């Protein structure tokens, strides 16, 4: 879609050269050649190249420069028309240039100005020309330009929607994988690991019953195998946890996330851990870490913050994550997929997410989860 848009922009940018070449060819073939119009043609070609071809980003971002460009094109066209009416072939290109160079209502004003070019050639029937222009040419140019503008806006809207859907789909797929890994880890912990623990306990009790030596040997072997299997199951559960939590506690994992974000964005960011750190359930640690990563990602993508502060607080019965930035802020009632996914993940564990923000006032994200 983006490539198609680029091709159409290139066609619009090159079209004036085609009409200018045709008009110049007609002039050379039917009139005595003089250098003045050829010099003006060369200047127009260079003017168009500099403002449109060499600097395509100016089209919709630099209105002042585009007004200068459009005025220069009109002046050059007037000079050509005063010299010879054959250059009227180039006038239709100026209609397109009005919509190419000028934003909003200025494009329609430019079309009206271009209509006046038909009056410039010597010997023009002013009355008939005005009637044709006002009754047919100008309205048609305005209508075609309006249709093209509507189509451009629709193409841009669809492209942006496609990009958003692609990002959301990738994020959703990632979250589904993480959720499935967490579910499998929970199932293994609650079934296989707990079952093996029970088997080990029962075998230890059986060993103390004073059974015959051969039976005791078998029981000892079974207990050893059950313990080894329990160790392997616990390793598998740990492997299913997010990478940062495999070899570090939650506080250290959050601090690593902050350091990585600070290095990536070059923005001052701090991480503070308060209270007595203690092991939490794997699901709780994953939820807190993901919430910290999502809040930091939002601060980097949208907030344009100059500072971010992250605080992880271990309290008596809850663990609290606070992420504050001094960025652009937003309307908390309009939330993207990331914040929604964060809220859903935390809610599944009985926790809460609070977002305080306003345009221009920074953002504060608070995540509270049961730590018992």
Strand content: 5-15%
Overall geometry? elongated
**Could you spell the SSE succession in H and E letters?**
HHHHHHHHHHEHEEHEE
Give the tally of β-strands.
Answer: 5
The tally of helices reads 12
The CATH class of the domain at 248-372: Alpha Beta
- Using only C-alpha atoms, the radius of gyration works out to 36 Å
CATH topology (level 3) name of the domain at 248-372 = Heat Shock Protein 90
> What does the average pLDDT come to?
79
CATH architecture of the domain at 248-372: 2-Layer Sandwich
Keywords: Kinase, Membrane, Transferase, Transmembrane, Transmembrane helix, Two-component regulatory system
Protein name: Histidine kinase domain-containing protein
Domain Histidine kinase: 288-372
InterPro entries: HATPase_C_sf (IPR036890), HATPase_dom (IPR003594), His_kinase_dom (IPR005467), Sensor_HK_TwoCompSys (IPR050482), Sig_transdc_His_kin_sub3_dim/P (IPR011712), Sig_transdc_His_kinase_ChrS (IPR017205)
Explain this structure to me?
Strand 1 (269-274), helix 11 and strand 2 (308-314) form a beta-alpha-beta unit. This protein is α+β, with helices and mostly antiparallel strands and 372 residues long. It is 70% helix and 9% strand. The two termini are 52 Å apart. It has a five-stranded mixed sheet, covered by helices on one side. Among the domains are: 2-124, no CATH class; 248-372, Histidine kinase-like ATPase, C-terminal domain (Heat Shock Protein 90, 2-Layer Sandwich). The longest helix is centred in the middle third of the chain and has 82 residues, at 126-207. Residues 288-372 form the Histidine kinase domain. This is Histidine kinase domain-containing protein. Keywords: Kinase, Membrane, Transferase, Transmembrane, Transmembrane helix, Two-component regulatory system.
């Amino acid at each position: 879609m983006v490539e198609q848009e680029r091709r159409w922009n290139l066609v619009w940018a090159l079209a004036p050269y085609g009409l200018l070449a045709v008009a110049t060819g007609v002039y050379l073939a039917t009139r005595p050649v003089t250098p003045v119009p050829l010099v003006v043609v060369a200047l127009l070609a260079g003017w168009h190249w500099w403002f449109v071809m060499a600097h395509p980003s100016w089209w919709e971002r630099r209105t002042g420069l585009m007004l200068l460009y459009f005025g220069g094109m009109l002046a050059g066209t007037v000079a050509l028309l005063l010299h010879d009416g054959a250059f009227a072939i180039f006038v239709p290109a100026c209609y397109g240039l009005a919509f190419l160079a000028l934003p909003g209502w200025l494009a329609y004003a430019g079309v009206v100005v271009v209509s006046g070019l038909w009056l410039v050639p010597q010997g023009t029937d002013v009355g008939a020309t005005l009637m044709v222009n006002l009754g047919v040419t100008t309205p048609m140019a305005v209508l075609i330009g309006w249709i093209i503008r509507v189509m451009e806006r629709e193409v841009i809207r669809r492209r942006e929607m496609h990009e958003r859907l692609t990002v959301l789909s990738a994020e959703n797929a990632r979250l589904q994988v993480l959720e499935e890994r967490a579910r499998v880890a929970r199932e293994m912990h609650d079934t296989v690991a707990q079952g093996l623990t029970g088997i080990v306990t029962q075998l230890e009790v059986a060993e103390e019953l004073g059974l015959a030596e051969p039976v005791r040997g078998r029981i000892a072997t079974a207990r050893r195998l059950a313990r080894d299997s329990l160790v392997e199951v616990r390793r598998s559960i740990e492997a299913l946890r997010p990478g940062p939590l495999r070899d570090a506690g939650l506080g250290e994992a959050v601090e690593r996330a902050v350091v990585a974000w600070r290095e990536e964005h070059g923005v001052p960011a701090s991480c503070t851990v308060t209270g007595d750190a203690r092991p939490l359930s794997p699901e709780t640690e994953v939820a807190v870490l993901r919430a910290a990563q999502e809040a930091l990602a939002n601060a980097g993508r949208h907030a344009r913050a100059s500072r971010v502060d992250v605080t992880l607080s271990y309290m008596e019965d809850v663990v609290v994550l606070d992420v504050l930035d001094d960025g652009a802020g937003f309307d908390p009632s309009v939330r993207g997929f990331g914040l929604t996914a964060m809220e859903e993940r935390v809610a599944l564990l009985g926790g809460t997410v609070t977002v305080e923000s306003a345009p221009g006032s920074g953002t504060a994200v608070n995540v509270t989860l049961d730590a018992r």
